[in-house]
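[Solved] Which block belongs to which protein?

Original post:
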Amino acid sequence: MFGKKTINQLLSQLEFSKTEKYIFFLILLLNLIPVLSYKFFPTMDGAAHLYNSNLINEMVLGNKELHQYYIFNSMPVPNWIGHIILSFFNLFLPAHIAERILLISFLIGLPLAFRSLLKTISIENIHLSYIIFPFTYSFVFFLGFYNFLIALVFLLITLNYYIKNEENLTSIRKISSLLFLVTLTYFSHLFVFALLLLLIATRLGFKTFLYPADVSKNFKQKTIDFIRKSLFLLLSTLLPLLLFLNYLISKPASSEADFIEFNTLIEWLKNLRPLIALSEPAEQKYTRKIFYVIAALFIYAFYSKLFSKQKPTESFTIKNLVVSWKSIVNLSDFWFISAVILLVMYFNMPDSDGSAGYVSIRLAFIFFIFLLLWIASQKLNKWIVSIAMLLVLFFHFKLNNYYQDATKNLESIAVDYTEVANHIESNSVVLPMNYSGNWLMGHFSNYLGVDKPMIILENYECVAGYFPLKWNVSKMPDSRFGSITSDSLLCLQWYANPKGLVKKIDYCFVMGNIDNGNAPCDSILKTTLNQNYHIIYTSHFSTLYKANK
């Protein structure tokens, strides 16, 4: 049946397939080097997530001092999954190991979820799975948006499961499995959850009405089929959908809307801005080249799609146009439509609405992933794809080397702050003052409390309203810095209860050098520190003051 040459080709392909799998897992391991190189992998919000996860453990275990300052959010809000993972591992492991487990889970989970989805939609282009690696160490990764990143993994896993079962999503087991995955996505991140529902609905509508493969059904039959599948889909997403609607209704309305200029948005696409984490000049020379590779692959895939199946017609008529449409469009174009929807949202949605931020970069991030899924679903030459992947991996590991070097100083600061905690008594109230001058260190003071219970008065999660913990404003004391109340200075404010018992703040933690501050407010802070506190510990990166008795 098969000639000797054909059998040898098949055996060769099978052997290469096995080898390729090992190569992929080797790249997967090499990609972990920046995270494994140091004790902490510092990110902007990472310290806050670690700190609040430790607070959750302490409160669950009955720390009464903390209950005076914090309460659990009564709303079933998103952003729980990351905290659950960190809290669980932080029960019996140091915080830096708990965080490393979470980061490694994402760095492994995203490439595997992407690769698994590729196997479902286009296994012959599995070589393109390597193109996901530059999207692991991204801008949102360095921001420490852990719940958002976890939700992206669940997004790909859930879409993969839905696509595999979309034609027979009727059994209790399959409906329950989809419900479980969708619920995990909701409790990871609200925005990604909303996108997941939108994309599944788009898939259902596209496959029912626009995809021209099924010509046996008329419009009425397709509509009935659409309604039937929608009801099963609604059943599979009902619980998280109700939670989602309840959250939107309960969320205070915001009139703030910050839009990015159109030219800037265009420039961000060309520079692959979602991948630029720390320094645009240093990273752009690599991200721009990765963009060129993606753009070239897109043009090649588009050209291949247009001219590989199109049949010549004698003249331009509506009938011939329909014939051409049917010869070109296939189910894989769902990914292209999804990418277009994301691109439209990217150009029209505000970057911030007063609560959620960096929306444009997040949308661009997901847009490129779906564009890559469409590219991977087309018929492509494996040699061209392999060369493109080699280029992408070369630029990616150049970026990884840069990240490894650039985070070294930040990691030293993070370690220093955890050592400062040894000089702070448990359950003490600490007021941070940030003179670091580094935007990425906005929440670095929270490293003080990642392994020890304390009340750090800089806790953005408790203010946001969409995280597990909130300030217990009605019961917390009126914490004062000397004679200064929580809202009397514009340059330094914190949460306190003006009607509560007056309590002097136990410690002041100065990040950087307070002498570098020359504003009038800085002079007040220094005077108050000198009159009411004394230095008990100093390092190259910080100074710790304790209240005078």
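(Second protein starts here: sequence line, then its structure tokens.)
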Amino acid sequence: MTPRKIAAFVACACLFLGACGSRVAPLPGTQLANGQLGTTGGGTGQVPGASGVPTPGATTGRGGIVEPPSSILKPGCKGGATDQGVTSSTLKLGLIASLTGPLPGQFDSEVEAVDSYFRAINDAGGICGRKIILEIRDDNGNGTTNLNLASKMATEDHIFAFVGSVSAPDDSGIATVAADVNHKYGGPYPDLGFPLTWKRTESPTNFSVPGAVQHDVTGEGASGTKWLNQQFGIKQVAIFWLRESEVSVLSAWGFEAADIKAKLSSDGKSSGVTICHEQPAGVLDSYYGNYVSSMLADCDPANGPIAIYTTMENNANIKLANALQQGSVTLCKKVGQKDCMVFAPTFSSYLPSFITGARAHATEGAFIAMPQIPFERLSQPQSSWTPGTYELQRYYSTLLRYYPRPHPPGSFGAPGWGSADLFAQAAAKCGAALTRSCVLNNLRTWPPYTDSGFLSPNKPGDHTIYHADLLVQVQNGQFTEVNPQLKSGPSGAPDFWDDSKLFDWGIFWWCHQDLFPQSANADKHKLVYAGRKYQVTAAQCAASNHQT
């Protein structure tokens, strides 16, 4: 999309209402004025740190104006100072994100999604008349800073809850403060945001939408890998991950287990898939050419079709795509194509920069499995929209209302929007007697959450990763949905057709270590089972062989 088309896209409301017929793509954005971050507070309709930015109007959707539902606003409900961070007129929340540092640009969309959601709530009157004050802080991707900010928010700013926080070092800071097992910080605090460490994932006060990685639970489809392996007849798999991120490492090992399990023979001793290459990479590594050379040395095309799966963040995925192109690797663009490799990063690369920030055509053909409905849905005729599409439209039009020049709203933007919505619903259910205890109890018993079908369903209190997704592929320089008319997914979210039953990959690995690359098995023992007396029985091993 050219700059001229992008400008027209922002200006023309009919485009984000899906009536113009042209393809909708996530928008390139600009940095906030002077790099400043603000607070939601009064719902001014301005970009934080900027001045005089006009509001493009109310959010719209099916039937006209879409405001937050009355079940959240609770008209006529009035409460007092019922807990820390709560007064009769305000509700104070905190958000910590890595906006600068080693992962620049990865989480901007989540911050803007959360902020936009709460601004819309405030403009409609607040929850029980309480306007939300959202304190936004940047930890620069530093664990010590994350801890200091989380501590200050709890003990000095006196927030009620954390909503929308997303940061690589969240185990050292927000996970500790939110759970507050020693009551050092005046907690515990509800924490709704996408965790990037297992400590925060498994925290009893964290509730992530659409789910989060656990130590040893993953999906048999592992973010589209099972479907891709079947479609392309994959026999060899190369896995790339970031050594600095436990979630990235654990996800990669889960991918390995899923690939091997899907092709496990009935005797439980052999597999049709070989993990031909494992590659930990560093966030600050600038050259991936040597990684690709090592992969090509380990993965011989004569041994069968090859898939490259990564659990890295977007900038690292771009570096890998560039190196693959420079290494003369051709990416598969369609089923049946010969002499090519499947390339599939996780949804962290559902951003325009994955295409525009790479070398020309370097990401062409790449697949991305996603736990959210893609923005491309908005270009379809409204007659084909599902309930989730209308929620996507509400998110996008609300974003443009408060951020007329947003950062690209892909990647973590949808989980951010869902986190804000889930918190608002849980808080509204408490009504006038709003307390942290009430919100936590609501979240622990919440049924499977989809945000009206916009997100893959997941029960927040289960603390597990999502079990269904859909796929997009880069075609002709833009994201194109794979099987957009296939609506065979789970109840309440039929768009997410790529089902991925959860299984304990730790048990499976324990029982089949001979099928895994030996290079990382010592690390798997150390990380997955550290501090545990994990004994696996023969019956558990037999059960782990079962294929769905």
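Accepted answer:
You had them paired correctly. Confirming on the second one: The chain has two domains: 3-42+74-211+382-466, 217-370+469-544.
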